[in-house]
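// run 5 | inverse folding | seed 20
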């Protein structure tokens, strides 16, 4: 496989990021194209893509907030997003199926954590399904319990990584 480059998102990546989103999440959970656009426009500093052969094959996007409760839907639309907030919140981490299990998500997360540390954030928070708890534990997160979120009609678990 050719080299994988991890870089910040660019406006031209919208369509390919949307494809990664819809390949990774069922329709009731996937973010709309407009939402991805909003995340690119509002907080490209917290939005990373994995690129190979000039094609986006994975992405991680986020927002920032002082709030500790991330169960509401608003932040995902960047409502209440504060670039100086103490927490970074991961909205989506996804890799195209044919590129999975090659360490791409791990590289996206480590680049993102580097950025969170550089910005002197206190915590990284995210919500995930039960079957991915162990996956995020493997990347240094701890399980912080069941979230109040019912996004897409599913049960969500809160994961937390304290940076300082
Ligand atoms: C979850 C996802 C992002 C992982 O991407 P990936 O590029 O295949 O992950 P990596 O290859 O970087 O795997 C990192 C590590 O986690 C392990 N791992 C991968 N999937 C796992 C799983 N479902 N459960 C536990 N561990 C897992 C890998 O073995 C690897 O461990 P290692 O580095 O010790 O070998 C990918 O499967 C995906 O896009 N899924 C659909 C979208 C999704 O559910 N995203 C999470 C939203 S909360």
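// decoded
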């Amino acid at each position: 496989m050719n080299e994988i480059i991890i870089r910040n998102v660019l406006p031209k990546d919208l369509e390919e990021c949307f494809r990664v989103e819809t390949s990774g999440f069922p329709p009731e959970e996937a973010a709309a194209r407009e939402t991805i656009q909003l995340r690119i426009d509002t907080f490209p500093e917290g939005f990373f893509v994995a690129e190979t052969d000039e094609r986006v094959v994975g992405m991680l996007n986020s927002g920032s907030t002082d709030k500790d409760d991330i169960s509401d839907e608003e932040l995902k639309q960047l409502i209440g997003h504060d670039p100086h907030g103490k927490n970074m919140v991961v909205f989506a981490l996804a890799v195209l199926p044919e590129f999975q299990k090659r360490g791409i998500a791990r590289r996206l997360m480590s680049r993102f954590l580097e950025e969170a540390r550089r910005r002197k954030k206190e915590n990284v928070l995210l919500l995930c399904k039960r079957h991915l708890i162990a996956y995020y534990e493997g990347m240094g997160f701890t399980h912080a319990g069941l979230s109040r979120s019912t996004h897409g009609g599913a049960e969500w678990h809160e994961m937390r990584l304290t940076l300082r």
